Amino acid sequence: MAGAPTVSLPELRSLLALGRARLFDVRSREEAAAGTIPGALNIPVSELESALQMEPAAFQALYSAEKPKLEDENLVFFCQMGKRGFQATQLARGLGYTGARNYAGAYREWLEKEG
């Protein structure tokens, strides 16, 4: 998909092994509850814009996680098939998160190869 930097499964594996990526599952809470990539923070795409514009303390209170910084590298967004992850990546980049990337293979590929 043009317009948003992507990450492949082998690269994602490497980044996760090195602790150099933050994963964001932008599927619904119900979808994420049924299974997600270990370590991913679930923020449904419908909430993402407001979440990324929150004060850090409010983000922490709501999501029990540190809010990403604009300059953070390898903020990896994913969904089930790729479309919402792509939208989330574009949204985050539009808000100034320069390290936002889309895991285009999405949870479907992860489940198939890693599950």
TrEMBL record:
The active site is at 79 (cysteine persulfide intermediate). Residues 17-115 form the Rhodanese domain. Pfam families: Rhodanese. It comes from the Eukaryota. This is Thiosulfate:glutathione sulfurtransferase isoform 1. The lineage of its organism: Eukaryota, Metazoa, Chordata, Craniata, Vertebrata.
